[in-house]
């Protein structure tokens, strides 16, 4: 199928925009790839330190025989459901490496924090920056420079982008990402969400709410809704960085273990193959565009309009929100997974999963097929769905027709003709909105503003009955400079409650929502942020704001001269102080000071 013209044009403008930075990146990558193996180029003391703890036979193989040595970077900890399954992966990987005359070492661990645990808590203000801490931790792990390939063990929100940014700074190494899979389905996401609304309205108490939450989040594996964590997995499939089809296989089975063993075999095949494809060559402009398209086609997390800008930049590629918006106009929405539908990721996998989506997009000319992946047969291999054979090996079958057209549909009969991501522009700055779950009659909201300096103050106003009206809630001082740009998920239940009463409600913020706003029109990531002198600092209670997702406008309806003459508010001193005190936030002051804007990827390392 001929490549869609818009996809081709966006790819070309990214290629042209990135020509200088990409060339510099590839020159450095190729220089590193041409060096002798680590044990050969290092001094004797360096080598002895590197392999002192290895079993004797492994040490002999890597030092004397120069067999490939795989570096494992793991996000394992046993308090996070998504990462707990990684506990035993290193032993399995080492065992499989030995079978294939190779060795493996845990190069290092990276921190992994959970937005679900820190939601609405001070620790949430470390969340976005943890991505770059993870990238730096990955670099520290690999800086020992004795590895011929790497396996990246991580799943969730900031962990995968951080690992990917770190890996791309070691782009000369073949790299495969190893997922752990989602937890089995418990209480449905829609039932859980409904219970949260009831709790916000005071109709159920803490005991009932906790019981519901515990039934939803009940075991090892990723949360089952299609948030940032599971969007990560979809994007890695579309980029060809996984063993095909491994994203949404539940943890704890022998088949899951066999898929991990296949990751070892896959990375060794790259290392030993004449067609050498390190991760820096796999992740090119076409690969990044494929990830963007997969995100749009599945209604994935808006966080990736920040994270994938940073990921691309790590490979010398420059993308922006306009690229996403242009692609969104031609990429249909062909999957509905909660919060954009009722199905969870297990139902998504059962209906066809990533293999179905990628097959549909390739067949429609909406993805680049001429790309390198971690497998020899290219991205078309990602259309296969893996299953165990009787002998324990893996067989891939091509995804057939949708097994549930309420979850996945073919490109000619989509849920929506576009991907549901819009860039909004106007006198309030630039922002993004995810409208894939917002009913069409709510794509335009015009109402008086109610301005808040924190999500806590909005919740307090809701509880006091002060928001029972048509309202655009403006929550500012939530950007990366101000407080690290936390998720604002705790706003969803009260805003849904207001909407259920029949009020026109919208949210405008320089913070993040990751698409969890659901049916609430939410202009998020407003840039420039208020703390950087952005126009949100000029909004006052009662100003009429128009959010128009049809025309792509976000405006305060005020005389231009009056608006130009209005003096911006300053971030309250008490807020600025609190953002620098407690829960380790003092250590992140330099990151808040140096971070780029949300549209530039909220990078602390550029």
UniProtKB/TrEMBL annotation:
<dbReference type="GO" id="GO:0009255">
    <property type="term" value="P:Entner-Doudoroff pathway through 6-phosphogluconate"/>
</dbReference>
<comment type="function">
    <text>Catalyzes the dehydration of 6-phospho-D-gluconate to 2-dehydro-3-deoxy-6-phospho-D-gluconate.</text>
</comment>
<keyword id="KW-0119">Carbohydrate metabolism</keyword>
<dbReference type="InterPro" id="IPR056740">
    <property type="entry name" value="ILV_EDD_C"/>
</dbReference>
<keyword id="KW-0479">Metal-binding</keyword>
<keyword id="KW-0311">Gluconate utilization</keyword>
<keyword id="KW-0408">Iron</keyword>
<dbReference type="GO" id="GO:0004456">
    <property type="term" value="F:phosphogluconate dehydratase activity"/>
</dbReference>
<dbReference type="InterPro" id="IPR037237">
    <property type="entry name" value="IlvD/EDD_N"/>
</dbReference>
<dbReference type="Pfam" id="PF24877">
    <property type="entry name" value="ILV_EDD_C"/>
</dbReference>
<dbReference type="GO" id="GO:0005829">
    <property type="term" value="C:cytosol"/>
</dbReference>
<dbReference type="GO" id="GO:0051539">
    <property type="term" value="F:4 iron, 4 sulfur cluster binding"/>
</dbReference>
<dbReference type="InterPro" id="IPR004786">
    <property type="entry name" value="6-phosphgluc_deHydtase"/>
</dbReference>
<comment type="pathway">
    <text>Carbohydrate metabolism; Entner-Doudoroff pathway.</text>
</comment>
<dbReference type="InterPro" id="IPR042096">
    <property type="entry name" value="Dihydro-acid_dehy_C"/>
</dbReference>
<feature type="binding site">
    <location>
        <position position="223"/>
    </location>
    <ligand>
        <name>[4Fe-4S] cluster</name>
    </ligand>
</feature>
<feature type="binding site">
    <location>
        <position position="156"/>
    </location>
    <ligand>
        <name>[4Fe-4S] cluster</name>
    </ligand>
</feature>
<feature type="domain" description="Dihydroxy-acid/6-phosphogluconate dehydratase N-terminal">
    <location>
        <begin position="68"/>
        <end position="381"/>
    </location>
</feature>
<dbReference type="Pfam" id="PF00920">
    <property type="entry name" value="ILVD_EDD_N"/>
</dbReference>
<feature type="domain" description="Dihydroxy-acid/6-phosphogluconate dehydratase C-terminal">
    <location>
        <begin position="407"/>
        <end position="602"/>
    </location>
</feature>
<protein>
    <recommendedName>
        <fullName>Phosphogluconate dehydratase</fullName>
        <ecNumber>4.2.1.12</ecNumber>
    </recommendedName>
</protein>
<dbReference type="InterPro" id="IPR020558">
    <property type="entry name" value="DiOHA_6PGluconate_deHydtase_CS"/>
</dbReference>
<keyword id="KW-0411">Iron-sulfur</keyword>
<dbReference type="InterPro" id="IPR000581">
    <property type="entry name" value="ILV_EDD_N"/>
</dbReference>
<dbReference type="GO" id="GO:0019521">
    <property type="term" value="P:D-gluconate metabolic process"/>
</dbReference>
<comment type="similarity">
    <text>Belongs to the IlvD/Edd family.</text>
</comment>
<keyword id="KW-0004">4Fe-4S</keyword>
<dbReference type="GO" id="GO:0046872">
    <property type="term" value="F:metal ion binding"/>
</dbReference>
<keyword id="KW-0456">Lyase</keyword>
